[in-house]
Specification:
18 helices, mainly alpha, about 475 residues, 10 strands, globular, two-stranded antiparallel sheet
C-alpha cells in the first residue's frame, strides 16, 4: 500500500539520521527538548532549515537546474532526458526528478512548521530576535509553496493547486485552489514583512559584516525583509490578476530605489559575480553553501552521462553588436579541463577551474534572488504606461553588462530576451515563460513545440492522491 508523501516526510523527521550542519535537525524530539531552550539553540534550529534548503535535492542544485533544463538551456548527454525537454511529464525519468523535488521541498516545509511550532511553545529566556526568527520562517514557508505552485499547478486560479501546509504533524493537508494558494502565500509574506522591519537598518550598503549577534550579520544569507518584498514582486508578477503587474512593479521599484543592491559598477566584475558566491552587490538573498562546485561540476563541466551542454542558441544571444561585447558571454567558455568544449561557467569558482588566480568577492553560496530580476519586472510593469521609464530600467541593466543603451523601441520580446540572457542558471526563466504562457516553445534542439495546458505543469507524485477524501 502506498503512503502519502507528506506522511513519510513526517516519519523521516522523527526517525531520520544526522547531518554535519546540525547534528540532530531531523529528530523532532531533540529539536523540542534541547535546541529550544535558549537563543543559541533556536538559531541553530533556524540555520538547520537553511542547511536543508541548500541540499542538492532542493535549491543547492536540483530546483534551479531542472527549471533551467525545462527552459531549454541545456542538451543532456543522457538522451532519455529528451522527454523532459519535450514536456512529456508522465515519463518515468521525468517523474523521478519531479517526485524528488516535491518530496525535498515539502520536507523543508515540514522543518519550517516544526520550527514555528516549537517557537510558539518556547518558554526559555526572552528571545531578543524572535521577530526575525518568525519572520524568516514564515517568509521561507511562502517562498517554498510559491515555487511548488509555479511548478506543479496550472495557471488558472480556479483550478486545483497544491497543499499549503501550515502545521507540523502527520495530518494530511487538503489541496487548495490556485487562488487560495496565492492568498495564503501573500498572507505569509505580509506577516513576514511586518516582522522583519529591522532589516532596514541591519542590511546596509556597503555591507557591514560585523555585529554583536551572529543573526544580525550577513543578512543576505537570511530570508530578509527585502527578500520578502522581492518574492512579493514575483508572486504578483506570476499571479496575473488585474493590477498585479502594477503591484509587482511597485515592489521591484522599491527595491531598486532602496540602493541597497546596486548593479555591479565595473563590467569586468560581471564574469565572476556569481561564480560560487552570493553576488556581493546584487544579491537580495542567497543560500550559504561551500559545496556548490563539487555538486555542479559533473553537470556543467564533466563529459560523462550526467553532463549537459549549453545550447548554441543561448550562447548566440550574447553575440557582439557594433563592436560591443556583452560581458555575460563569459558565463560560457572553456577551461583547462574541457579544452575546446564550451561549458557553462557562471556559477563555478574560477580558481577551482584554473581560470583565475583570484577568488570572486562575496560569501560562498548560491543566489536565490538578485536585483537584476527586479529591473526586468520593473521594465515590464512600466512598459505600457511609461515606456520611457521602462527603457530606463533596461538601459541601466544592459549598461552594467557592458552594452550601450537599449536601441530602438522596447518590446516584450526584448524583455524576454534579457530574461534569458541575465537569469540563465538561476532557475527563473521557466517561470517567466509560464507567466507569458506562449502557445509554442523552441526546444533545445531547435524544434517548435506546440504547448498544451498540461505541458506547463509538472506532475504531482501519484502517492499524493491515494486515499484523499477531498479528491474523491
Amino acid at each position: 500500500m502506498k503512503k502519502l508523501a507528506i506522511l513519510w516526510i513526517w516519519a523521516a523527521l522523527l526517525l531520520g539520521g544526522c547531518d554535519d550542519f546540525l547534528t540532530s535537525r531531523d529528530k523532532s524530539t531533540v529539536l523540542e527538548n534541547k535546541l529550544f531552550t535558549n537563543r543559541e539553540g533556536v538559531e541553530d534550529a533556524l540555520y538547520g532549515i537553511y542547511a536543508g534548503l541548500a541540499q542538492s535535492t532542493v535549491y543547492g542544485v536540483d530546483v534551479p537546474f531542472w527549471m533551467d533544463f525545462l527552459a531549454q538551456f541545456y542538451i543532456p548527454a543522457n538522451a532519455s532526458l529528451n522527454s523532459m525537454l519535450e514536456y512529456e511529464h508522465d515519463r518515468e525519468e521525468c517523474r523521478r526528478v519531479y517526485n524528488s523535488i516535491w518530496q525535498g521541498m515539502y520536507h523543508s516545509i515540514s522543518d519550517i512548521n516544526n520550527f514555528l511550532s516549537n517557537l510558539d511553545a518556547y518558554e526559555g529566556e526572552r528571545l531578543r530576535f524572535e521577530d526575525l526568527y518568525r519572520g524568516e520562517a514564515l517568509g521561507l514557508r511562502a517562498y517554498l509553496h510559491f515555487d511548488l505552485l509555479r511548478m506543479f499547478a496550472p495557471v488558472k486560479l480556479s483550478e486545483r493547486g497544491i497543499p499549503y501546509v501550515k502545521h507540523f504533524g502527520p495530518d494530511v493537508t487538503s489541496f487548495f485552489t490556485v487562488k487560495e494558494c496565492y492568498d495564503l502565500i501573500i498572507q505569509d509574506l505580509l506577516d513576514a514583512e511586518k516582522l522583519l522591519r529591522e532589516d532596514e537598518t541591519l542590511l546596509t550598503w556597503p555591507r557591514v559584516r560585523s555585529h554583536e549577534f551572529i543573526i544580525c550579520r550577513n543578512r543576505e544569507v537570511h530570508f530578509n525583509w527585502y527578500a520578502v518584498q522581492a518574492t512579493l514582486a514575483r508572486v504578483y508578477y506570476m499571479r496575473g490578476e488585474p493590477g498585479d503587474l502594477e503591484k509587482a512593479g511597485e515592489y521591484a521599484r522599491a527595491l531598486i530605489e532602496s540602493e541597497k543592491f546596486p548593479l555591479v559598477r565595473e563590467v569586468k566584475d560581471v564574469t565572476y559575480m556569481m561564480a560560487g558566491v552570493i553576488a556581493e552587490t546584487e544579491a537580495i538573498w542567497g543560500l550559504s553553501t561551500k559545496t556548490l562546485y563539487d555538486k555542479l561540476y559533473p553537470r556543467y563541466i564533466g563529459r560523462g552521462m550526467d553532463s549537459y551542454d549549453p545550447t548554441a542558441s543561448q550562447i548566440g544571444l550574447y553575440a557582439s553588436v557594433a563592436g560591443e561585447m556583452d560581458a555575460r558571454r563569459d558565463w560560457f567558455g572553456n577551461t583547462v579541463a574541457t579544452g575546446d568544449y564550451t561549458r557553462t561557467l557562471k556559477l563555478l569558482d574560477p580558481v577551482e577551474l584554473a581560470n583565475s588566480s583570484t577568488p570572486p568577492a562575496g560569501l560562498e553560496g548560491i543566489n536565490q534572488i538578485r536585483i537584476a530580476e527586479m529591473y526586468l519586472i520593473a521594465a515590464e510593469a512600466a512598459l505600457a504606461a511609461n515606456p520611457t521609464a521602462a527603457q530606463g530600467y533596461l538601459d541601466d541593466l544592459v549598461i552594467s553588462r557592458g552594452l550601450s543603451k537599449f536601441p530602438g523601441t522596447l518590446t516584450l520580446e526584448n524583455i524576454d530576451k534579457e530574461w534569458r540572457k541575465e537569469l540563465v542558471c538561476e532557475g527563473q526563466v521557466w517561470f517567466q515563460m509560464k507567466h507569458r504562457y506562449p502557445q509554442t516553445v523552441i526546444s533545445a534542439y531547435g524544434q517548435e513545440l506546440t504547448m498544451s495546458e498540461n505541458m506547463w505543469q509538472l506532475l504531482i507524485p501519484d502517492d499524493e492522491f491515494d486515499f484523499r477524501e477531498d479528491l474523491n
